[in-house]
Amino acid sequence: MKYIIAKNKWILLGIILGAIAGYLYYHYVGCLSGTCAITSKPINSTLYGVVLGGLLFSMFKNKKKDTMNLKEIATDALIVDVRTPEEFNQGHFQGSINIPLQEIAQRADEIKNSQKPVILLSLWGKKRTGNNVFSKPRA
Q1: What is the pTM of this model?
Q2: Strand ranges (DSSP E) for 31-76?
Q3: Of 68, 57, 61, which Cα lies nearest the Cα of 16?
Q4: Quick one: CATH architecture of 70-135?
Q5: Helix, strand, coil proportions of the chain in percent (round to 5)?
Q6: Element (DSSP H or E) covering residue 73
Q7: Among positive and negative, which fits the CA dihedral 118, 122, 128, 133?
Q8: What are phi and psi for residue 96, nearest 5 degrees?
Q9: Where is the Rhodanese domain (predicted)?
Q10: How far apart are CA 15 and CA 91, in angstroms?
Q11: Ordered per-residue pLDDT tens for the chain, 139 residues
């Protein structure tokens, strides 16, 4: 039960707030003539609020991102660590090769000749610069 509540907390919050808003709408605004299908009875107005609140707050629900574990794809890819040799020697992903970012443009051919997909690793997002080297059209 805790898992269901934790996973759907935004929807549950929307249902609760929607129910309160629906009842308050009936109580303070409502349809006095009784001819309005949704707001003529407190149960209808409350249920309408529940549905709208649940739908509205479902937009805020965390969506699981489609991600892959690096260990799962490492065997089928060339992993290039673009950190400095000192950083690389302090610890690196098993099977990765070290090509410092400053050298990546000069050594791009040896990476481009690989038949495997290339994964660039870095510590602080430096791979974006490396990606630019590989995304430029070949001459």
Answers
A1: 0.43
A2: none
A3: 57
A4: 3-Layer(aba) Sandwich (3.40)
A5: 55, 5, 40
A6: helix 70-73
A7: negative
A8: -85, 155
A9: 73-120
A10: 49
A11: 777 777 888 889 999 999 999 888 888 887 766 667 777 788 888 898 999 999 998 887 666 666 667 777 777 888 888 999 998 999 888 888 899 988 988 888 888 888 888 888 887 654 455 455 555 554 4
Q: Are 80 and 99 in contact (CB under 8 A)?
A: yes
Closest C-alpha among 46, 59, 60, 40 to residue 17: 46
116: Cβ contacts below 8 Å, ≥ 6 apart: 76, 77, 78
Closest C-alpha to 130, from 92, 74, 82, 63: 82
Token pair of 134 as six digits: 């590989």
Strand partners, 79: 119
First-to-last alpha carbon distance for the chain, in angstroms, is 60
Tokens of 40: 């003529």
Cα atoms in the Cβ-side hemisphere of radius 13 Å centred on 18: 20
Provide the CA 1 distance to its chain's centre, in angstroms: 25
Task: Give the span between the Cα atoms of 27 and 47, in whole angstroms.
Answer: 14
Structure tokens given for 54: 């649940």
